[in-house]
User: Fold this.
Amino acid sequence: MSPRKLDKTSKKKEILFAATKVFAMKGVANTKMSDIALEAGIGKGTIYEYFQSKDAIFYESFRFFMEQTDSLIANRLDKIQNPKAKLEAWIDGWLESLSNSLDQIGIMMDYWAEGIRSRKEDSAFNIKNIYEKYRQTIKKILDEGVSLGIFKPVNTMISASILIGTLDGLALQWIMDKNLFRFIEASQILKDSFLNGLMKK
Amino acid sequence: MSPRKLDKTSKKKEILFAATKVFAMKGVANTKMSDIALEAGIGKGTIYEYFQSKDAIFYESFRFFMEQTDSLIANRLDKIQNPKAKLEAWIDGWLESLSNSLDQIGIMMDYWAEGIRSRKEDSAFNIKNIYEKYRQTIKKILDEGVSLGIFKPVNTMISASILIGTLDGLALQWIMDKNLFRFIEASQILKDSFLNGLMKK
Amino acid sequence: MSPRKLDKTSKKKEILFAATKVFAMKGVANTKMSDIALEAGIGKGTIYEYFQSKDAIFYESFRFFMEQTDSLIANRLDKIQNPKAKLEAWIDGWLESLSNSLDQIGIMMDYWAEGIRSRKEDSAFNIKNIYEKYRQTIKKILDEGVSLGIFKPVNTMISASILIGTLDGLALQWIMDKNLFRFIEASQILKDSFLNGLMKK
Amino acid sequence: MSPRKLDKTSKKKEILFAATKVFAMKGVANTKMSDIALEAGIGKGTIYEYFQSKDAIFYESFRFFMEQTDSLIANRLDKIQNPKAKLEAWIDGWLESLSNSLDQIGIMMDYWAEGIRSRKEDSAFNIKNIYEKYRQTIKKILDEGVSLGIFKPVNTMISASILIGTLDGLALQWIMDKNLFRFIEASQILKDSFLNGLMKK
DNA sequence: TATGAATGAGCTTTCATTCAT
DNA sequence: GATGAATGAAAGCTCATTCAT
Assistant:
């Protein structure tokens, strides 16, 4: 009597994954809806049953990526009190999140590019706000550490920016040439170096 | 020697600047040939007297940017012997180059994105090779410093990558929110911190 | 006799009514099958259990409209002998039929448009034939009246066309601005005027 | 030095005529941009150099048709004082305008249909207002005639509506079957009959 | 029988590129 | 050399229709 009742959510996710994969490989602008359909193993029209437009897919892909990262980091920060341990947990969370999607990390370029261009504060696609949130989280940890006399009295806002930038930049390097160094190794060095420069002797 | 030739070159450069400006503002994919023509104050068809295609403009824009940076850095490195001073000169050169084009830095996102995607080693547009050159230059300086006992015995390849990545990442942060910190101030901190971590006590 | 059969017929009619309503509001070209399904309170696929295609619905909608008008007029003409009374009955029948569906009269535009375009004589959708039938009916009445010396000796073919055209045209005016005049009032004037011009003094 | 400088206006008009012709034959909804291009003997993309969209073509086609009719009628009314002569001139103008475009009159169905559906008073495409203008012009003539005692004391608003509707309706009949009667002959009858019914004895 | 998820042909529209002037 | 009118390949998107359930 009733037709096949699909799990709409799971199919949507499948399409989202397929799209993200193709976006990462070819770039958003060079990705055709038919490419996504092909990758997802469905018809072109079917995509529109789940997403309003190509832009909407891109946007949701971004959201998904960010939410994943957020929840992963939040889980790690949970219950940790010590600022140094907290900072390490944050960095580890970030790196793990990145590692999880290393094969489709090329899309981050498009996230950034789009984020930079959509300047309007109220834009739904506001990467600036996302980074601001990261920055505030880290700044709070740093402030705490400085108050407790564990960290040097640095400019915590700039330090937070430097940390995030450094991680992004390293990922960028790694994306460009994955044979250059082992990502985990380099990030370990980075983490040690940043923490080392921060800690009071 | 002929004035014709000179005119041709300078007009080409004008178009290139116009294109780079529009690329930076709107992104390469969203930039129309007519946008470039408008910005350059010429006719749409005229562009094709100087460039083969839109891709060619993008490519030459990238080359120009890189050559500028290269020559600026080369000038600073010239005649400096001391590894530490050399490294500082390299970083300063990079930062100055970046500062020169801060207003059109948005295009770097497209450079990176395109560079990441054109993986073929023989691609004319091989950003990987460009970065490899940077890396080698820095690695050589680091190796020298390590040999002379000035720098700690670090993995110089990874350290070079980290330096470049860090600088790129910081620029990325700054691009996203220019009001966040003064670029020069942050880069100074970065430079000090990197050098400090590197130097033997 | 089987209840199944009855159900099927009545459901088909429901769909037909729903479709006609939506057609009238949005125009045939702008009406989606899903709009019809929604209006009829059934699933999109179900429509195809009762109709072959969207075109078939449109065609049957037209047929239904015309058959209704036909039977209404036929009922009124029945048993009337006097040509003048017959003509009045025809006009009244036409007007009553129109009045019955004033709220969905917008679809007549599409009937006409489609009718005009499907020129092929053998087309199932031949509005020309429908009008030809009307014309013949009226012509016959007029011929009768002329023979009997009741009507002036007019060109009965053209007069019939004028009568039908006038009625359609008035409806058209009324459709465009329903607040302009009371439809019944205007049609009464029209009827009087036409009959008056026709009658021998 | 300078490229071919086309007369933009005349080419636009060519496209408009081609479009109107195809619209009339196939209906607006069934007309593809490529059909228009084919008819106009140009490329599909060229149309967009002169019109924003398909809708814009339809709209301008309508405007052109109406402006033509308006100016034709205005020319004829000019300098005529007598109400009866004025009315005759108006009708003749309308008929001449219609005759001029009898071959592409099918598009009127779409004009009407669209006009009926776009109800918003402020819509640029407001056929209701066009007809209102016609109605007012005729009403004024009728009022004048009634004041002067030339016309019977009819409801001039309804009479104006009936006149316009009658003309439209007759055209409709004629469009449906062009072999049925000679348009000019029928319209002459109509004109005589309307005027005859109106004049005081 | 009833359904709505799936589909792809077909549409409008864009824009890099060409080329007559 | 310089131009912009002309173009058509290609893209995003719609929706009548199918069909597995």
Observations:
- Residues 151 and 199 of chain D are 5 Å apart (CA to CA).
- Residues 54-77 of chain D form the longest helix (24 residues).
